[in-house]
Amino acid sequence: MKDTLRQYKNRAAELFSQGNLEGALSEYRSVMESAPDDATSRQRVAELLQMLGRRQESLATYEVLATVWAKRGWVLRALALCKVILQIEPSHERTQQLLATLHAQLHEAPCAQAAPSKPLEPRPAPLASPPSLGRRPRIPIFSQLSGSEFLSLIGDLELRVFATGETLVEQGQASSSMFAIVEGCVGLIRHLKSGGQRTVAFMGEGDLFGELALVTDGPSRSSVKALERTVVLELTSDRVAQLIRRTPSVGQMLQTFHRERLLSQTIGSHSLFRGLSREQKEAMTRDFQLCSVPMGKILVEQGQPVEALYLLLNGHCQVVLDESTGHESPLPPLEEGDVFGEISMLLNVPATVTVRADSRCTLLRLDREACERHLFHQPGLRELLTRMAAERLHRTSRAHFSASPAAGGSGGASSL
Hints:
Blueprint: H1 2-17, H2 21-34, H3 39-51, H4 55-72, H5 75-88, H6 93-108, H7 140-143, H8 147-154, E1 158-162, E2 167-169, E3 177-183, E4 185-191, E5 197-204, E6 208-209, H9 212-215, E7 223-226, E8 230-236, H10 237-246, H11 248-269, H12 278-285, E9 289-293, E10 298-300, E11 308-314, E12 317-322, E13 328-334, E14 339-340, H13 342-347, E15 354-357, E16 361-367, H14 368-374, H15 379-403
Antiparallel strand pairs: 1-8, 2-7, 3-6, 3-8, 4-5, 4-7, 9-16, 10-15, 11-14, 11-16, 12-13, 12-15
Helix pairs in contact: 1-2, 2-3, 3-4, 4-5, 4-6, 5-6, 10-11, 11-12
């Protein structure tokens, strides 16, 4: 049976690529006859009927399928099909009723907890039909809306389809939209300074990305690429801004969602926190502050006490050594992923350099008390930080010497 179904699907895909829509429709209908629970093939039938202009047949198929997805708990799939139905027939009454049911389901889902990206692991083959229990989408913005606001929002969502290998978001570029994955899978890809690239995480159905564009004006930290045919619901920042003006809790929820996911990803992957247990990382996450600073902002000032550890997420910072003559000697800049401030706190000495934002920067900040509680009392971590302190102090001393008039030069690294 499985081999026969695979043959039908392969033949359908081949006919579709050749532009033979009637032939592809016939093959997918053969799948439905042999496997009535294959909801994915039923959706392909509805899509082909719509392409062929058979409006009523496609409406009826979409409606049945939307109800199936809703009952199985796959809210985003049902929501996407409701949008398709309303595009075909805006006054479709039963679909309006189904949307009210979906809104209630979204309210039942836990909405305050962030959705961390999936760690790198072999991806399972797509299911022909999702399991009956399904999974709730972790999308906070929908559950913060009243019924009327939710229905109004549906009209502003754009249903988009991306082919395998297509880029949805480009690293380093500002995005103006948030995306919810209806079906498919994407990879978060980080482009390295060496010219290579690294896939850092996967995201799949029910996951949200792009909320950074709605809570900060910073560029995307990763590219997002479709690893298979991927369907998303897109919501622009302009529309979200309107919602936030009417419902401030939407903005608060997005801030919380973004902060918790960002912290989870950063603390989970940064080498400085690698030796901490999961429980320790979770406890530290609650004490980190997410902050954005403008270009020119002084974060650490030479000769002054340092009261926090900083982890640079976006942007770059200038590091300078102030000479007694009033001359500033530039040192290697701080870039994404760099940590500063912890050395001066660990050794209880003033900062030996000044750190200034050289662009608009997004940082994580952990104050002195939290550093003492989470970091400085960990034996292995304290040893690592002490070794880093000694190395940085040595390099800064060399930089101070080479930057002096007698030495006739400049350069080196910083001790912060």
